[in-house]
Amino acid sequence: YGELKPLAYESDLAFTPCLINFTQKYFHSERALRGSLVIINFGKHPEGFFLLKILEALNEDKNHTFGLMPKDGRWHDDPAKVIDKAQNYMLIMLDMDDLRLNVDQWKSLPTWNPLAQTIIVLLKTFDTIKEKDEFVRRVFEELLADGILFVNILFRMTSTLNKMAVETWFPYYDKGCARFVDNIYKIGECIVSEKMNRLTGISEKTWKIYEFNEEKYPKIPKIFNNCPLIISTFVWEPFVVGNEKIETGLEILMIKTIAQQMDIKLQFNIINDDLVTAKISGDNQTGIYSDVLQKKADLMLGGLYENPISRKLVSPSIPYYQDDITWCVAKAKFAQTWLNVFIIFNLTTWFIIIFTLVASSVFLYAIAYFTKQTKENFTWVFLITVTLSTGQYGHYWPNRSSIRFFLIILYFYGLHINTAYHSSLINVLTNPRYEDQIKTMEMAIEAGLTFEVNVNTMEFFNSKGDWISKYLLSNHKLCRNIDKCFKKIKKDRKVAVALSRAHALNNPFRFIEDEDFFCFPVSDDVVIYSVVMMFRRFHHLLADINKKIRTISESGLLTKWQKDSQSEGDNEVEDSSDAVGHGSVKMVLRVEHVEGAFLLVLLGLATGFLVFLVELSIFYIRKKYKIIMKRRNEKKNIRK
């Protein structure tokens, strides 16, 4: 730091105790942590002795609780080796060039933390109050541009060189909203004086501290006097619901609750829908985070999640909702209803039932035939057996005890079979059957579905090495508007769309009904992630809002809001759907539910009609044959 010249800045050295006292006070205020790192930057001060004395005083103070890192504004050779976040900054400066140079260095280090406590020591003395006010305001404004709010500036006036004053800016005092530097107040003063030691006869320097405007603390209050909080958001149900105007949604309800508690006025900017599924980039002009990066907004909403780019550009809130990206496909169609009356039993059971009917008919016919109890044919006996087995009326009065005993056994057999059949039939008719549902990626690939996915979701497959991911990387279709792609499922059964499960299942506008799509189970998710708010990097309200989010999450309000939104959506569907529709609670039987029985009757009628036509044809053929044979015989007789 140059040659040591103790006499050049002897007057500055007299204020070292003041500086130490202010440091102990303001570095411990509000957010400072014990054992925290203090980065001390020295500006273009021409002498090193003064700087070394300050370091010596800070380091040897009996109340010392900080780790010190001296800097001089030059580029750090290996910034990555210092990873602890700075909790305090100190800059000893002469002019504005010092400020810009050293703040840029702070920002370049991994220790950068604009929420740290900052002390600016001005070595320049001021001749007039106006000159001081302008310079101090410029310093505050320069630091505000970098998001540094917790700043205390130490300075001296030329007219009172024995006095060091401290001024600070209260961002939210007197209805201020941390947008402009307009509430600068003096909060402390240190006066150095000389006092004669009566014992030694030597003059000694003494100092005394005065404090002002204590009532204006804290700098970040609990109530913000209706200050604006600007929010850029996507319309992304169920988190943000609306159209041209934001109406409701889980995140909207949460941020409104927080704003009400903190007395903050919310201002919403709706982001273009094209950015919802556009490729995430760090472009501060057209990228997804551009509003926050350009400081047009304080935070972003819309079911967002952390990613490698967001971690570098913005500050996330604590997570408050777990969502996942899954595949949604068309729901399986109804199975063919004409089979309803036949699927009561499986094929083996039907075979046994039919075999039992035939065997019983043969047995009954054999007994009746050999005992000469009936003159009817086997068809009649078979029909009697069927009527008894199905609980229908059939007139038959056998005389033989063996036949009566057999019919009693057959009756009880029919009672059990008939009860089982009708019980199962009611269940089948009132609970529609579906075809096999596609519910895994293996089934979807085998079915030859077209996979539509947005560019950001594809990034998750790039990091995987399984065969499904490799297949999707070469067999997918990019989707620019996820809602439009999702709507395709209703008409195209060969489409699978990757999207947020919460968005798919909680869409209040019902552009596709729950009965039209099916989302894969969690075990087949693309990725599971936590939903967060994206704040401007190192936003000073983030810590307070995180506390509110944690309270809301622990109270169960998010769960309640989600259930309320789902119940409202269900009511809308119930009101707008047909009472006999596929999704209604009550099931009214229609023709298609029992068309199998009608088809069976038609099949019997058609078969009987065909047999009748065959018999009629045979009758006429035989009749004609007899006529022909009769004529031939007559001709033969005439010849004879």
Automatic annotation (TrEMBL):
InterPro entries: Insect_Ionotropic_Sensory_Rcpt (IPR052192). Its main location: membrane. It is a multi-pass membrane protein. The chain crosses the membrane at residues 338-366, 378-397, 597-621. It is found in: Cell membrane. Keywords: Cell membrane, Glycoprotein, Membrane, Receptor, Transmembrane, Transmembrane helix. Coiled coil: none annotated. GO terms for cellular component: plasma membrane. It comes from the Eukaryota. This is CLUMA_CG001153, isoform A.
